[in-house]
Amino acid sequence: MSLWDVLVSIFWFMILFAWIALFIQIMLDLFRDPETSGIAKAGWTVLLIVLPWVGCLTYLIVRGRSMSDRARQQAERNEQDLRRYVQSVAAPTSESTASELTKLVDLRDRGAITADEYDRAKAQVLSSAVPTPPVQRDRETVRPS
Question: What pLDDT tens digit does each residue of the chain (145 aa) get?
């Protein structure tokens, strides 16, 4: 096998790899788009399988701009979902801790609980609100003798 044959093989492998990556990206975009009908999705899929490069290039020409818009919108939705999740996980702990402490102070001030009961309940609320960090232990180094 000559050097030229190796270079041609590498070139065709890169072309195949580029088509696979492009095909996956297009299929993800196609089936993520809620505005495209099922028949249109089936048509694009058949075109992409029967005429791979023609189908990919046609898709990029016809829907390329909207493809990047959908990718950007998906990234924004993912970021908003992450922010909402972080807020939902972080916020209730601080709000519930503050509201429980306020209720305890109110109970103590009205005389419904004693100072000792207030201190115990306060310690319990504060200990349940603060997450304990994971304990990290150093591994012992074993040296052969």
Answer: 899 999 999 999 999 999 999 999 999 999 988 888 999 999 999 999 999 999 999 999 999 888 989 889 989 999 999 998 888 877 555 557 788 888 889 889 988 888 898 899 888 888 876 554 555 555 555 555 4
Smallest Cα–Cα separation from 102: which of 130, 121, 87, 127? 121
User: What's the Rg (C-alpha) of the chain?
Assistant: 31
> How far, in Å, CA of 64 to CA of 57, rounded?
9
Query: Can you tell me the distance from the alpha carbon of 16 to that of 32, in angstroms, rounded to the nearest whole number?
Result: 24
Measured distance CA(114)–CA(102) in Å, rounded: 15
Domain coordinates of the chain in residue numbers?
3-129
In this structure, what token pair is assigned to residue 21? 């990556």
* Burial annotation 38-53 (CB, 10 A radius, 16+ → b, else e): eeeeeebeeebeeeee
Question: How far is Cα of residue 134 from the mean position of the Cα atoms in its chain?
Answer: 24
Which structure tokens are listed for 28? 């993800």
